[in-house]
Write a structure and sequence with these properties.
Blueprint: H1 3-11, E1 14-15, H2 16-23, H3 28-35, H4 39-48, H5 58-63, E2 83-84, H6 92-103, H7 133-136, H8 148-152, E3 172-173, H9 179-195, E4 199-202, E5 236-240, E6 243-261, E7 264-267, H10 273-278, E8 286-301, E9 310-314, H11 321-407, H12 413-430, H13 436-441
Parallel strand pairs: 3-6
Antiparallel strand pairs: 1-2, 4-5, 5-6, 6-7, 6-8, 8-9
Helix pairs in contact: 3-4, 9-11
Keywords: Coiled coil
Coiled coil: 336-383
Biased composition (Pro residues): 68-77
Length: 448
């Protein structure tokens, strides 16, 4: 195809329907060339947008009239991507799983030295076999497949809560010790939502949705300082009756007493009686620190900036979250109508605010235009008066020079020569006396 057409296609936003039509009109290689991307990348796009594409051998079968029927394009679910722009990030979950599978052949818990430096494999204790992806990663929700290694690849933590380098992940915050329980709890909730027809996914790129801040403390502190916690690139959402509700799984923290020992603060609750007797004195002072409690909590919230709403479901004791899932799903479904009403009220309020803002903007623009016209009128009047004054000055100076020249005839020759020279110098100093110059350059108000 012409280079200009390819450049245009490579920057255009394409809908699911357009991609679906192209996939069944020409081979994927040609479609990929059209958008200036690789066929493997385009395959991930089709997977992410849930677009069926021809199986291998389809085009050969089509030449002989034996191709299978074309499947219909499935309708979009709430939260699904509906378009794609070349170069945008897609297929993150599929790539995560592929990395885990590919890296499994290199060794336990190590990055693949030949491939992506971010690739980390599941430890042997989490694998069932080395044969396939299904054996490496237990069957799980698409948001949870293969994500564990990326949570473990974390920045330095101070309150036990992991801070992964990767940010396009499901919204889960926990300590390494509690990570498996947190992912399992998320799996149970997501499965329960799916059984009720509630789609769970990550917000689409560019969606106007925010992830609410989290206070990890089980009992909120009165202090103004709160430690910064990890947040994903985009919120995790469950769609209930067309209403998006944000979900965050996190392990709650609590303030515990710690004792200073050899450059570290150790929780007093983790020390034996013998250690407690040893760590006393001026070199082993005690203070309070925030540490993971081992108890999970789910926070649901409104991802819209205009609706301030959130609710928590905390564990009363470790391991009790899964028993709460049926109640949580029921409450999410029950609150959806009221949630939709609040969102509609917020939308109407936003439209009213935007209307008032537009009116105020138009009023300010009209006032600015009025002030501009008034200033132009005043400036034009000032310049015109200046031109008139210049005309008077020119006539007065010209009359003066004429009078001096007329008086020269009455002077002796020697004096007349001196005065004539002085008159020449005066004329050179004054310059040309053209009173029309300023009038020629003068601008009327409507010309300004």
């Amino acid at each position: 195809m012409p280079e200009s057409d390819q450049t245009s296609s490579s920057t255009k936003t394409v809908t699911r329907q357009e991609l679906y039509d192209l996939a069944w009109q020409m081979p994927m290689l040609r479609v990929a060339e059209r958008f200036g991307v690789s066929s493997s990348y385009l395959a991930r796009v089709f997977t992410e947008l849930r677009i069926p594409r021809p199986a291998p051998g389809y085009w050969a079968q089509r030449e002989f009239g034996k191709s299978p029927p074309k499947p219909d394009l499935p309708p979009t679910r709430p939260g699904d991507l509906t378009d794609w722009s070349p170069g945008t990030s897609v297929g993150a979950t599929l790539r995560n799983l592929t990395k885990v599978v590919r890296a499994a052949n290199t060794g336990d818990g190590q990055a693949n030295a030949q491939g992506d430096p971010d690739t980390v494999v599941e430890p042997a204790s989490r694998r069932k076999s080395r044969g396939s992806a299904s054996a490496l990663v237990p069957k799980s929700h698409e948001l949870l497949t293969g994500v564990r290694p990326f949570f473990l690849k974390s920045r330095k933590v101070e309150n036990d809560i992991l801070r992964p380098f990767k940010r396009l992940l499901v919204d889960v915050l926990s300590s390494e010790k509690k990570l498996d329980d947190a992912l399992d709890a998320a799996q149970v909730l997501f499965e329960a939502c799916n059984r009720r027809g509630l789609h769970v996914g990550i917000a689409a790129s560019g969606a106007q949705m925010r992830r609410m801040d989290i206070d990890l403390l089980e009992k909120p502190s009165s202090r103004n300082y709160h430690r910064a916690v990890w947040s994903p690139e985009r919120p995790t959402l469950v769609h209930v009756g067309g209403v998006a509700i944000g979900l965050t799984f996190f392990e709650m923290t609590e303030e515990v007493e710690v004792v200073y020992v050899n450059g570290k603060y150790l929780p007093v609750r983790d020390l034996s009686e013998q250690q407690l007797r040893r760590y006393v004195g001026m070199h082993h002072w005690r203070s309070k620190e925030e540490h993971a409690s081992g108890r999970l909590c789910l926070q649901a919230y409104c991802p819209s900036w205009r609706v301030k709403w959130s609710k928590r479901w905390p564990e009363t004791k470790p391991g009790s979250f899964q028993r709460m899932v049926p109640q949580i799903v029921s409450e999410l479904e029950a609150m959806a109508p009221d949630f939709a009403r609040q969102l509609e009220e917020a939308r109407i309020q936003a439209e009213e605010e935007r209307r008032r803002w537009e009116e105020e903007r138009r009023r300010q623009e009209a006032e600015a235009e009025r002030q501009r016209r008034e200033k132009a009128r005043q400036d034009s009047k000032r310049d015109l008066l200046g031109a008139i004054a210049a005309w008077d000055d020119a006539r007065r100076i010209s009359d003066y020079f004429i009078s001096v020249e007329a008086a020269l005839v009455r002077l002796p020759d020697a004096d007349a020569a001196i005065v004539r020279e002085r008159l020449r110098l005066a004329k050179d100093l004054i310059g040309p006396l053209d009173p029309l110059v300023q009038l020629k350059t003068w601008k009327a108000p409507e010309e300004r």
